[in-house]
TrEMBL record:
Domain General secretion pathway GspH positions: 49-163
Keyword terms of this UniProt record: Cell inner membrane, Cell membrane, Membrane, Methylation, Transmembrane, Transmembrane helix
Source species: Candidatus Woesebacteria bacterium RBG_13_46_13
Recorded topology in the membrane: Single-pass membrane protein
Protein name: General secretion pathway GspH domain-containing protein
Entry's Gene Ontology cellular component terms: plasma membrane; type II protein secretion system complex
Length: 166
């Protein structure tokens, strides 16, 4: 009987082929999961950049509606606040600035992720006028397009004449 139980123990192990098949299946599942996660994280980076830009557009809009003048020599009395600008400097940078009669005062400067680029809208800068008087956009709307370099995915951001941001 001892020989029989030793023989059973010896045959209960996994073969080399079974281990290779299991490792291959695990590798395929991991590879597909990694590619899916990478695509997901790229989409999220683009969506996050778009949310940040929309937030800064709304910041400029809200400050203009409130007539909030920054404490700066260019905006101190007798200077008048004309509005707030959202100006695209280049494909990676933009600034939010107060547009006063004495000059522009930078409120916020942002550099977006290196794998995302943005188009320069027309007009540039987009000015949100004080007291909800709309924008300086002459067409029905201006569009700022974000493009992700690795995937060529795009995300448009539209600003209407009245200042609606989509």
């Amino acid at each position: 009987m001892q020989k029989h139980s030793a023989y059973t123990k010896l045959n209960s192990a996994y073969t080399f082929i079974e281990i290779l098949v299991a490792l291959t299946i695990i590798s395929l599942i991991f590879g597909v999961g990694y590619v899916s996660f990478r695509d997901f994280s790229r989409r999220q980076a683009l969506a996050g950049a778009a949310r940040g830009i929309v937030g800064d557009l709304r910041l400029a809009q809200e400050e203009a509606i409130a007539g909030q003048k920054p404490a700066d020599i260019f905006c101190n009395p007798p200077a008048i606040l004309n509005g707030y600008n959202f100006r695209v400097v280049n494909a990676q940078n933009y600034v939010v600035e107060a547009n006063c009669s004495g000059g522009n005062v930078q409120v916020k400067s942002v550099t977006i992720a290196s794998d995302i680029s943005m188009s320069i809208p027309s007009p540039n800068p987009i000015t949100f006028k004080i007291l909800a008087q709309g924008t300086n956009i002459n067409a029905p709307s201006a569009t700022l397009t974000l493009t992700q370099k690795g995937t060529a995915a795009t995300r448009p951001i539209s600003i209407s004449q009245a200042g609606e941001i989509k």
